[in-house]
Amino acid sequence: MENFTEVLQLFLATENFLAIAIGVVIGVTVGSIPGLTATMAVALALPFTFSMEPVAAILLLVGIYKGGMYGGSITAILIRTPGSPASACTLLDGYPMAQQGEAKKALKMALYSSVIADFISNIALIFFAAYLAKIALNFGAPEFFWLICFSLTIIISLASGSMIKGLIAALLGILLSLVGLDSVFGSQRLTFGNYNLMDSISFIPLLIGLFAIPEIIEFYRKKVVPHLTAKASGAGVSWAELKHSLKSIIRGSLIGVAIGAIPGTGATAAAFISYSDAKRRSPHPERFGKGEVEGVAASEAGNNGVAGATLIPLLSLGIPGDVITAIILGAFMVHGLTPGPLMFQENLTLIYALFLGIMLSSVILLFVGNAAIRYFSLIADIPKAILFPIVLMFCVYGAYAVNNDTFDVWLMLAFGLLGYVFNRTGIPAAPFLIGFILGPMFEDNLRRSLLIGSNDLSIFMRGPITWFFIALTVGSILLALYRFMTSRHKAKRRADDPGKGA
Amino acid sequence: MKTFLKALSAATCGGAVAMALSVSTAHAEEWPTDDVRLVVPYAPGGTTDVLSRRVADLLQDEIDANVIVENRPGAGSTVATGRLARGGRDADHTILMASPGHTIGAAIYPNLAYDPVEDFVFIQNMIDIPNVMVVPADSPYNSVLEFVEAAKEQNMTFSHSGVGSSIHMSGELFKTLTQTNMTAVPFAGSGAALPALLGGDVDVSFENMPTVFSHIQSGDLKALAVTSAERSEYLPEVPTLKEIGEHNLDQFVTTAWFGLIAHESFPEEATETMQEALNKVMEREEFLSFVEQLGAEPGTVAGDEFKAFIADEVARWDKVAAEAGIRQE
Amino acid sequence: MTKSRSTGGTLIKDPWDVVAGAVLLGFSLLLLFYLVPNYIGEPPILQNPMMSPRWLPTIVGWLLLVFSLLMMIQGVLVADDGEDSGRRFERGPWLRFALMALALVVYVGLFEMLGAIISGILATLILFIAHPVRVWWVYGLAIAFPVGVSLLFTEVMNVPLPMMPL
Hints:
The complex is a heterotrimer. Chain B is of the alpha/beta class. Chain B has helices at 2-25, 47-62, 78-86, 100-108, 144-153, 166-178, 190-198, 209-218, 241-244, 268-283, 285-293, 303-324, and strands at residues 36-40, 67-71, 94-98, 120-136, 156-160, 182-186, 204-208, 221-226, 255-263, 297-298. By secondary structure, chain C is an all-alpha fold. Chain C has four helices and no strands. In chain C, helix 3 packs across helix 4. The longest helix of chain C is centred in the last third of the chain and has 37 residues, at 94-130. Chain C is flat, with a radius of gyration of 24 Å. The interface between A and B is large, with 67 and 69 residues.
């Protein structure tokens, strides 16, 4: 009991509450500006934490992290510009919703789903950290390899129109992801001697280019279309709608937790896996990608479910799962703390104070998010002729800011043109993105497994985790084939419409 | 719209305040006459970034200027370094936190447009972090010699955080010196590499001290040796590779160093001012406790000594890179 | 937007797909026989072909080749169902499109030379004119935003942008 009062003493300081609140506000704001990522904000806030109490310092950074995860979805929904990579999936349904005058509903759903996922993720962190950390340690290269293979199968369910086009998009994504220095031999791959390409193609310019720029180009090519205004952009989310999506949200959160607990996969992949899972289970998958509110819910649940869980390997093993947790690790060290197994023995009160703060951050996110939506949803009512030039400006500044180089502005425009061509030829952008994210992970883990196992292929079947993911992969492909066949069958019967199901 | 404008006005005010501050702190004639830019050649996160932000924060108190940290990642630090080498308007107020990427990068990247030694002024080495040769807790090897004997018979794997990292190159150096069979297994950063080591998927690693220190303390990893010239005060019972001596290991001395460099046109007066200020920074309690947390030692070399050290490092990694076949012609 | 075009009678049902497939086919051939052998270095000794830096690019190349052929066949046989593509629309005036292209050129070509603020103002003004904005005060935004956002980036966020004309 004495410990409990100690925890409360550590936690109940005004500084902590302020730190979380400020953190979440900064996170939401920065996350919603294209090109400025939560990672950048966390890095910039780091020096301010040097002079703070350890608990407040960490909570500030965690607040930014969580706020940023949600903030990215705001611009994804409103202007088809993912503020952060993880929200790329949210725009698939969020932006169509905004165009149909349902921006507010999409934003609200994204927020509720984020908060619920965040909460579940925190629970996982607090109660199952030790257990999940053990699983993470058993996750070696072969296990990763199969997880990636399984994730690649979601391309099939993401390709909404033609499967062939979806696969082509994914292949192009994989190909572009391989540009840069080879991870094993350090030899150059398709860099053409350009130094800007050696660290592979920057993700942010690709993301902005692929989604935001085509929309802008299209707008200036089309004849004027009447602007659809729905005054402060429509209604919010009804209780029934939330309840309807709740299963997807919870499933997405759990997917996020699992992915977050394993260092190195990331929130973007989690969002897409959760999204495709929801789509697969939905009674009307054809609505996904055209403004299905459940799609927004699923993808936001996936990416926010990661946030709390990435702290699991950090706190219990001292292993940062992504760049943001790496910076938080730095903040711990500046304050004379080293996350890892020993911290749970030596600084338990501090850890519990942190946990309380992290729980609180979900609640604060709900309030800050609600306030933000009230103003941000007004953006949906701005005429596009005014909005798009400003969006383009943000895109250019944001792309430049990634590496402080005009090269990335070029890159962004190149991907903009590619995205435009994709639109015109009906090649979907989402599988391209999946390919780009998963391509290097696929190759690296394949080669890593071969190196570790000295070219012995039996390493790919080495334990229950590999078997589990092999079964999932095979099952997923079979299910897709089955759906393909049945839809073909149906299409054939409807002789007047041979295009369906292809 | 309203929030946007609000944010905007807040931003403009913030900007104005920041500019006002920078004006008031700048003196007219003595260096620094402007804000000092500290370039971090890597993306946010990671030792270089955190260290730079810590140093920048402390350095502001010692010199009459703001110190602004800028990340310019790319091609293992060579993009930022190449830019620094080109000079330009702000060259007299730009410093860069160099690290082993500076010397190793020069060895493995083809056609660099700069000379890693002659094109720069070497101000001060800030910290040295030893690498630790670690094996999983259940590894059958309890000493370096046992390990080397076994590695002559069978193939061993070592994990590293990316091609050209000091961890990778230490492994390659070990392999070359001891003439053993070792395969490098690349990971995307130390964070990803650590589980493979803890889980026993790889046999050994030459990780940076801060990454593995807590795992050594908790008994999840066994430290066989440290790579620095002297034993580390944090792991006093662990021998150095140099003192083991056999199998050419006496030549194995390397640390991950982090130091400040500038363009060759950096004024001499500025170098002196900086060195003075940095020496004060390095005596500060905040700095020392941070260094301790990293398991590092404060840097000792500055100026010409620092330059000579860099020249040796460049030559050494050049050789290792050529022998390991990781240089691109 | 449902099916908006008659499919009967024509030999090729979706010419766009055939063209796109042909371009991709050409690209995959270029990749396989020129780019991969010339621009991907391969170490002299390899224990396993799967370890080669060329392995995955080559596989991707062949798959791309197969799928681009399939796409061409699909284009010949199957009509576009028009659901997910935004390819049919009424074209606006060409001048508007040209002005937008000009704005992009301003950003890409002059960003470093003119600095973020001036190129931002210039491009935004061009775009406002391209798709005429008739409310006069909006043009004020074309100045306020680039200035405000540049300052936000450089002063508050410490993210450098090229500021002044060199």
